[in-house]
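Postdoc handover notes: sequence design on the structure in folder B. Input tokens:
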């Protein structure tokens, strides 16, 4: 049962939250002054097995779940200002190839935020893990086709990817990452999935804005205590109330949820 307090919180977050880009700047400013070395998922992959204990590493990742390019532009400008770099992962519904190339020109990384298991389950009304397993080859084929098109249109390397999470993934307890295996990586030239254990095992701290009650304070505290390998995950929706973008997203989610459950 959804509580009234939760609904109020969602309403405030969706429609009343002012821009918090100044908080992102505080994080970058403090990290730079504390001697952190900034990394994307890809650039950290290149040093993952030769971490210098005398250094501190900050990995910045942004999952572009909603197409709020005012926030994204703010992120990128601040990263340029402080010599930071970040990985930006775009869904098919939020992709902007021009902006992706700007990210790469700024020494960052732009690639694919995939969700083919969720997409397939919504379309086929799949409601069990067993049926996902029965159709996994078709789902993987869908992913490979989407990834190849995404990469071709962007003109970028797309050497890392990151799984997106949808309602159906939570309900069925099957993340989109479930479709990825070593054969797919080898075939498509993918070096790392952002949720791979090989990546996570090197982190000493990871903070995500969608699950943290006070993301900025937690990030600043982690920087102050000198976490050696810190990863910060952001989402545009958490940094500004883009009313029409958020409303469109909520309507889409509601429609998909109803259609999946009852039709």
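Designed sequence:
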């Amino acid at each position: 049962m959804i509580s009234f307090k939760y609904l109020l919180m969602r309403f405030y977050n969706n429609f009343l939250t002012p821009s918090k880009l100044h908080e992102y700047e505080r994080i970058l400013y403090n990290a730079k002054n504390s001697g952190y070395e900034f990394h994307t998922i890809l650039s950290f992959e290149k040093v993952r097995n030769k971490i210098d204990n005398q250094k501190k590493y900050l990995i910045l990742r942004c999952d572009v779940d909603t197409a709020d390019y005012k926030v994204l532009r703010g992120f990128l400008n601040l990263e340029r200002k402080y010599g930071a770099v970040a990985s930006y992962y775009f869904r098919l519904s939020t992709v902007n190839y021009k902006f992706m190339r700007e990210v790469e020109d700024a020494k960052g990384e732009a690639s694919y935020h995939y969700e083919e298991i969720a997409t397939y389950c919504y379309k086929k009304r799949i409601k069990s893990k067993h049926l996902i397993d029965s159709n996994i080859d078709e789902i993987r084929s869908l992913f490979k086709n989407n990834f190849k098109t995404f990469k071709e249109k962007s003109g970028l390397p797309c050497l890392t990817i990151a799984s997106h999470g949808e309602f159906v993934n939570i309900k069925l307890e099957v993340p989109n990452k479930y479709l990825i295996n070593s054969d797919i990586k080898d075939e498509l030239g993918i070096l790392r999935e952002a949720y791979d254990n090989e990546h996570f095992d090197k982190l000493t701290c990871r903070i995500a804005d969608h699950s943290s009650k006070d993301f900025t304070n937690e990030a600043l505290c982690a920087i102050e205590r000198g976490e050696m390998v810190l990863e910060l995950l952001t989402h545009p929706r958490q940094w500004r109330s883009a009313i029409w973008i958020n409303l469109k997203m909520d309507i889409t989610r509601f429609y998909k949820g109803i259609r999946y459950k009852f039709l």
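Context for whoever picks this up: The chain has 13 helices and eight strands. Don't rerun without checking with the PI first.
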